[in-house]
Amino acid sequence: xxxxxxxxxxxxxxxxxxxxxxxxxxxxxxxxxxxxxxxxxxxxxxxxxxxxxxxxxxxxxxxxxxxxxxxxxxxxxxxxxxxxxxxxxxxxxxxxxxxxxxxxxxxxxxxxxxxxxxxxxxxxxxxxxxxxxxxxxxxxxxxx
Length: 144
Fold this sequence. Notes:
Elements: H1 3-15, H2 21-33, H3 54-68, H4 76-89, H5 94-101, H6 106-113, H7 118-132, H8 135-138
């Protein structure tokens, strides 16, 4: 695979659900080192326990952690896309997704934020294939 293709795959993975658990682990480790570790405390609090400026958090903590775990460049919208894809993965109704993401139109949720997961695509394809083709034909179909 070419480095251009690998780079494109990495960017796509970073945009959607596939921001890795190791990034979540890095954020959790930061919080555990913090002076403020109560459940209601901010993950990125200043010395007084108040929230830090969001761009400072991104520049000083989130982006370096993403680079360390191999995700590459990310921003706050990466988390929105990931959250949307995770909602889709757990089967949340599209209207619920729209409201949780605070989109004014359902089209934004469906067309921009939510990406179908591979498992969901395979499962949907398998149902259609089984309903159209006789069973003996389906046996050799991948995902059927």
